[in-house]
Amino acid sequence: MNSSKHRFKRQESWRLKRVSEAWRRPRGVTSRMRKEKAGWPQKVKNGFGSAAATRGLHPSKLIERRLERLSDLEGLDPKHHIIRLSARLGERKRLLLLERVRQLNFHIANPGKEEAQPVGTQQETEKRTPSRPHETSPSKTLEAVSAEETSADSSEKRSPETLEETATEPVEEDEGSEDES
Questions:
Q1: What is the pLDDT of residues 37-93, one digit of tens each?
Q2: Which distant-in-sequence residues (6+ apart) come within 8 Å of 136 by Cβ?
Q3: 35 belongs to a structural domain
Q4: Counts of helices then strands in the chain (DSSP H, E)
Q5: 38 Cα distance to chain centroid
Q6: Secondary element (H or E) of residue 146
Q7: CA-to-CA distance for 170 and 97, rounded, in angstroms?
Q8: Domain ranges, residue 96
């Protein structure tokens, strides 16, 4: 909008991290900002408003109009108006209106995720990546299981020499436990 527009800060927002910069009226009994002391930021008052010519315009300097039906497009000019699709539209009507709005070369203020691409083209839905390590998709589970089985099979198959080396030796028995007759 207007770069010379005054930015009002909330009292103590520059000092306290928990206090956001969004404007709130100072209400304290001893508040220096409420009392308009020198050296403290100004309060919101009449006269700080935006210029009448740009008041209510979209940041792109176009007049914003909400679109609910096709008849709302009558009398609008793409050079002077920007379209905002109503939030109460269903998907079918929204897609119909989007197609017509694009044919007339209007800018759209809220195209949405799916509508940001040209109407009629649909990308394949990407595989859902698990948000937690223990969540997996069924196809991934089958692939993981088959990969684990093949790695387990290859580690179990050993040469005969290796098997002989790893064989357990016979346990020596205590001399006192055997009966000698």
A1: 999 999 999 988 888 888 888 988 899 999 999 999 999 999 999 999 999 999 999
A2: 130, 144
A3: yes
A4: 3, 3
A5: 43
A6: helix 138-156
A7: 85
A8: 63-116
Q: Which two tokens stand for residue 5?
A: 């527009």
Residue 70 lies in a domain: yes
Residue written as token pair 């998907």: 91
Q: How far apart are CA 57 and CA 65, in angstroms?
A: 10
Beta partners for 85?
67
Strand-by-strand arrangement of the 107-108 sheet: 63-67, 81-85, 107-108
Torsion of CA 111, 112, 118, 119, to 10 degrees: -100
Give the number of domains in the chain.
2
pTM for this entry: 0.47
Q: Determine the residue type at 58.
A: H
Residue with tokens 């010379």: 4
Q: What is the residue whose two structure tokens read 């759209």? A: 108
H/E run at residue 115: none
**Residue 130 DSSP symbol:** P
Residue 156, SS3 per DSSP:
helix
